[in-house]
Structures are given as structure tokens and as C-alpha cells.
Amino acid sequence: MKVLVTGAAGSIGRVLLPGLTDRGHQVAGLDLVPAPEGHDGPWHNVDCTDPDAVLAVFEAERPDGVVHLAGIPEEASLAAELGSHVVTTAALLEAMLAHGVGRIVYASSNHAVGRTPRSEHLGADARPRPDTFYGVAKVSAEALLSLYADRFGLDAVACRIGSFLEQPETVRNLSTWLSHDDCVRMVEASLTAPAPGFHVLYGISANSRAWWDLEPGREIGYDPQDDAEQWADRIATRPEDEAEGAHVGGPFAGPQFHRS
Ligand code: 15L
């Protein structure tokens, strides 16, 4: 499959470029910054908030699918978040329609439901409950995907990613970790599942302490293999662990809320 990856120089992009290539896909990267070392496929220095520039990339690449990772990965002003996550998603969806591209995999986030209190089990049908403007933008981008799936029949998989890290670093991460290899598995399944329509899944590994539903991922063929538990005895407890465990969004559900 020919895949266009946005935000391809970011932390997830750097893992996905070789990961998808190793699995036989042709990968074109797009980012504001130069290609990471080792990527010798096509590359576009483009701002995804610019619909004309995005369209030109589609004209050049003619991808079969899009993986949209670009965006501010943390809390910022509402205007910055909406531009970075929602305007970019709209530009990509319009370019997809113009070029008959039927599949987008979106790097959504657990922060779309980050203010949901801790429970036994978090389903993908939990109501939108963002913890920050970052989370609001993720909810809004998911809503755009749903709109375009319903109106135009696009397949759009929103992966509400947990904590994408080489290895878990905190007690919260023992529940929320997404390993590098599982991330590649998740994105490939989301790109290739037959006709998922609009689909939301939680992007975490098969963590023994997981409380976010893994079934929506399994329904489309994402079968996580890693478990954060193997690091449990190396993770020191900290006073903030209890507060971080109280909501889905951990520290984002606490004080780090941008209000100018
Ligand atoms: C995210 O969506 C953020 O981009 C990342 O910085 C982490 O905070 C992660 O979620 C998480 O919840 O651990």
C-alpha cells in the first residue's frame, strides 16, 4: 500500500516510517521539518493547515491511505490546537475526496476522554470528555472523521493513543503504554482492515493493568503483543501517582490547562 504519513519526523513517525516500510508498504513522509536520517523515500516539507499545499502532495504521491500524526502533542491555546489538529484534518479529508483516497488513520489521543474518572473499564463509546484544549481538538478532529465517513463513505480509524514510549516510565504508563512494535501493528491493522467505516480504538499495548477496552482494536485486527508489566519492578512510585491515576488523562487532567 502507498501511505502518506503526516508529522512523519515526530516520535511516532520515526518509528512508523521504517516499521511500515519493513512490512512492505511504500511510505511518503510529510512534515514541517526535514526527513529523519535513514528515510530515503519521498518527503514533503509542507504545513498541513494549507489545503493547497496538501492537495499538491496528493497530486504528487497519489497515496492509497493516509496516517495523520501531525499536530502539537501537548497543551497550548485553543486557537493553536484547533489549527493544528482540526484544520489539518479537514485539509487532508478534502484532498482525500479530491483524489479518491478512501482510508485515513488518525492519531487521536486518550485526552479526548481524559477527564473521564477512573473505572473498571473504559469503552470506546465513552462520551467525549476532554481534559484540555488539546483534548477538545482531538474530539473535534474525530467528529470531522465521523462526518466524512457518514457523508462520503470514507474509512476513518481514530486511534486514541495512550503513552507512546520506548518503555513505561511511570505507574500510570503501566496501564497506558503503547510499545513501538504495537504502534506499528495498530497502524497497519487500521490501514488494512476491510471496511471499518468510522472506528475508534484505544492505542495501548496488552498491558496487564490496562483498563481501556482493547476489543475495538481487536475487532479490526489490532492484536497487541507487548505488556508494560515486565518493567513494573523497575518503576519507582511517586507522590503524584495517585492523582495521575484518578482520570484517563493522568497529568493532563490536572493543572496543565492553558488559559491565557
Ligand atoms: C498524548 O496524547 C500526548 O501527546 C503525550 O505527550 C502523552 O501525554 C500521552 O498522551 C499520555 O497520555 O501519556
Automatic annotation (TrEMBL):
SUPFAM superfamilies: NAD(P)-binding Rossmann-fold domains. Keywords: NAD, Oxidoreductase. The keyword NAD applies. Residues 3-162 form the NAD-dependent epimerase/dehydratase domain. GO terms for molecular function: oxidoreductase activity. It holds the Pfam family Epimerase. Residues 239-260 are annotated as: Disordered. InterPro entries: Epimerase_deHydtase, NAD(P)-bd_dom_sf. Belongs to the NAD(P)-dependent epimerase/dehydratase family. PANTHER family: 4-EPIMERASE, PUTATIVE (AFU_ORTHOLOGUE AFUA_7G00360)-RELATED, NUCLEOSIDE-DIPHOSPHATE-SUGAR EPIMERASE. This is NAD(P)-dependent oxidoreductase.
